[in-house]
Each structure stands twice: as C-alpha cells, then as structure tokens.
Specification:
Blueprint (H helix, E strand, L loop, with lengths): L7 E2 L2 E2 L8 H14 L4 H33 L4 H22 L2 H6 L1 H18 L1 E3 L2 E7 L2 E3 L1 H19 L7 H5 L2 H14 L3 H17 L4 H20 L2 H9 L12 H13 L24 H34 L3 H25 L17 H19 L2 H27 L1
Helix pairs in contact: 2-3, 2-13, 2-15, 3-15, 5-6, 5-8, 6-8, 6-9, 6-14, 6-15, 8-9, 9-10, 9-14, 12-13, 13-14, 14-15
Length: 423
C-alpha cells in the first residue's frame, strides 16, 4: 500500500502546478507586448472608432423607431438619414486619413474663415430649434455650423501653434491670435443661446492652451471669466436657469424641468447589468424626449445595461489613449497639437453628455459624439478621427511596418503568379 505524498494535491505534484496569479501576469504581458507593436495605436483607433460607429447606428435605429413611425409612418426613416451621413462621413474620414499633413495645414485658415462665415449666417438667418438658434437651413437640409467649427478651430489653432513652436514661452504669442479667434467663435455661438456647444468650445480652448504650456495663472483667470459668463447667460434665460437649479434633483420638478433627466435615470436604472435587450426600451415610447440624440446614452443603458454603457465609455477612453500615444511619440508639433485638441473635444463632449444623462450636470443639449443621431455632428467627428488615424499610420515605426507588410504581400502574390504560370 502506497502513501500519497503530502506535496501532491489531486495526484499532481505541487511543483508542477502554475503559481497563483501566473495567468494574470501572462495575460498582462500579452497585452503589454501587443501595445508595444508598431501598429498598436493605429489598430486601437481604427477598431474602437468602427465599433463605436456600429453601436451608434444600432442605437439610433432602436431609439428612433417609435418616433419615426409616429412622425413619418416608417420606423426606419431616421436611421436611413443617419446611414446617409455615415455613407458620407466614412469616405471623408478615409480621405482625411490619407491626406498629406502639409495639405491639412493649408486647409486650416480657409476652414476657420468658413466656420466664422457660417456662424455669422446662423446669427443672422439661423433657424430656431428647441430654444436655440444654432441651425442654418440650406435648401431642404439643416446643418449646425458650430459642429463644423469644432474641427476648424482645432486645426487652425494647431497650425498657428506649430508655426510659433519656438516662441510659445512668450505670453503674447501664446494668446494671439488663437484666444481672440476662439472667443469670436464662442461669441457667435452664444448669440444663438447654445450654451452647451460654447462650453465644449471653451474646453477645447483650455485644452489647447494647456498642451502648449500656458502658465497656471492663466487657467485660473480663464476659468473665472468663463464661469461668470456661464452663470450670467444662465440667469438671463428662465428655462436654462430652471434646468441648472434642478439638475441635482430632477424629481423635485418632475413634470417640468426635471422630466427629461428623471426619465433618463429611469431608463438607466431599469437596464440593470445586461439591459432589457436591443429594441426593448420603454422610455423611448414618448416619455424620454430626444431619445435618439442628446439622451441616446439613457436608451443604450436601458437596452444594453451597465455592460453596454461601460463598453461605450471604454471605447472613448481607448480612442483617447491611442491618440495621446500618437501625440507623445510624434516629432511634428502640428500633429501633437491637433491630436490633443481632437481628444479634448471628443472626450470632453462625451463626459458632458454622460454627466447630463446621469444628472450630475445640467441638461444643456450636447449629443454623444459618433453615437447620437445627426449628420452635422457625425461627419466632422468622423473626419477628426480619420485625421488621427492618419497621424497614427505616419508614425515612423507604423509606416515601416505597413510598408513591410505591403512588400510581403506583393512578394506573395508574385510567387503565386509564377507558380500558376509553371502549371
């Protein structure tokens, strides 16, 4: 009769078993090795952007189906328009990703001037929608020039700061002409009472000043001025003031200013961990206004649960992480400033929208980038992502890896052709 070795567990020698936690360590090493590859940033940006766009189209279809049927007699009417904008935005993003940087910089001033002209036309001839005069009617199509202006000011400011790279320690060169130019854009947006977009533009301004090394005292002064201006603008609009004073407790004024945020919380709370399933939202049946635009995150939480909302937030942070990797590794100041400006824009707008839906920020009419319905916001956002993806492709190591892959593919095709000829 043999006696089991006390060092053996279940017949397996203790020394042959993997140490506790070795699987986690191996998994972390695999992730680290993958992130060290030359094309890691490129694939992270491409994959996260594509997945976010796909989720957006699905959620627009689900969130808008009821309203589309009641308004147009067609449950697919709104998503058809969104697909039209996707069909326009994706090729535009591809072109942006392949455009040489010198050509992108040449477009900086014309795009900024075009944005100013469009915003001026909005101030004079704009269409009033939900209390904000921020839409411009061009034939049968209405566009929101402020969304185009976000991309234009990032490229314009990045181009100027790249030209002044060696003179940015002087306060005058740091401020002029970027700060007056952005204040002009923000002022034109505020003429239409669009406080939400003005906040995003202000965030872009502060982000650009931070990345070029503005002194901290300048941020304190800027935040004070912007805070006073925001309070003053809110105080002059009774509806906006009501939203701001009730956002922490939307149930206090449930039938009026708290209606939308309260029903957004209802949608999120009923989703649980994994949601009710795509198409199963009850709040989109009329209780939740702007279900497919500003409050699409609430419908997403109701149908896909906490897992779905966290996935969307994770995708935004993945884009930000990969873009910041590109900005830190590049030697081109324009790429660095433009990439960081785009990150501040998209990530900041996402955080404002999610905070609005979670009732930790007042309802100020900010859509969720890439996900919410609307071509005016979607196309510039896709072009911005296309630019960053193009910057990632041009990283020296990434470009070398792509060139090697192309050579290998060509060599493989040539070998296959020779083999066919011999046969």
């Amino acid at each position: 009769m043999t006696t089991a070795n006390p060092e053996d567990v279940g017949g397996v020698p203790r020394r042959s078993r993997a140490p506790l936690g070795s699987g986690i360590v191996a998994g972390w090493r695999s992730v680290r090795d993958a992130l060290d590859k030359p094309l890691a940033s490129y694939y992270l940006l491409l994959g996260a952007s594509a997945l976010l766009l796909t989720i957006g189209v699905i959620m627009v279809l689900s969130a808008s189906s009821v309203r589309s049927y009641l308004t147009y007699g067609d449950s697919y009417a709104v998503v058809k328009r969104q697909l039209m904008w996707v069909a326009l935005g994706v090729p535009a993003a591809w072109v942006a990703s392949r455009m040489p940087i010198k050509h992108i910089r040449r477009l900086a001033y014309p795009s900024f001037l075009a944005a100013l002209v469009l915003l001026g036309l909005v101030a004079r001839f704009g269409v009033l929608v939900n209390g904000n005069k921020n839409w411009l009617a061009i034939g049968p199509v209405q566009i929101q020039p402020a969304e185009i202006a976000k991309l234009a000011i990032v490229l314009w400011a990045a181009n100027i700061y790249a030209h002044k790279e060696r003179r940015l320690r002087e306060l005058h060169h740091l401020l002029v002409p970027v700060v007056p130019g952005l204040f002009a854009v923000i002022g034109l947006v505020l003429v239409g009472h669009d406080l939400g977009t003005a906040m995003v533009l202000a965030a872009i301004l502060l982000g650009m000043l931070w990345v070029v090394g503005a002194p901290l005292r300048l941020f304190g002064l800027s935040l004070s001025v912007l805070g006073v201006a925001a309070v003053a603008l809110a105080a002059t609009d009774p509806e906006r003031l009501q939203r701001i004073t009730h956002f922490t407790d939307p149930f206090k004024d449930y039938t009026n200013a708290g209606w939308q945020p309260a029903h957004g919380l209802y949608a999120l709370s009923s989703g649980g961990w994994f949601g009710q399933g795509i198409g199963a939202s009850t709040q989109k049946w009329g209780d939740l206004p702007e279900a497919h635009t500003d409050f699409i995150f609430a419908v997403l939480g109701e149908e896909l649960g906490l897992v779905g909302t966290m996935l969307v937030v994770l995708l935004f942070f993945t884009i930000a992480y990969a873009a910041i990797r590109v900005a830190l590794s590049t030697e081109d100041p324009f790429v660095r400033y433009a990439t960081f400006g785009i990150v501040v824009w998209l990530l900041g707008q996402m955080m404002i929208n999610v905070g609005m839906v979670l009732a930790v920020l007042p309802v100020i009419g900010i859509p969720l980038p890439i996900v919410s319905y609307g071509g005016s916001a979607l196309v510039p956002s896709l072009v911005a992502l296309g630019l960053v993806i193009g910057f990632a492709r041009r990283e020296p190591e990434a470009a070398a890896a792509l060139a090697a892959r192309k050579r290998n593919r060509s060599a493989g095709l040539s070998a296959a052709s020779m083999s066919d000829l011999r046969r």
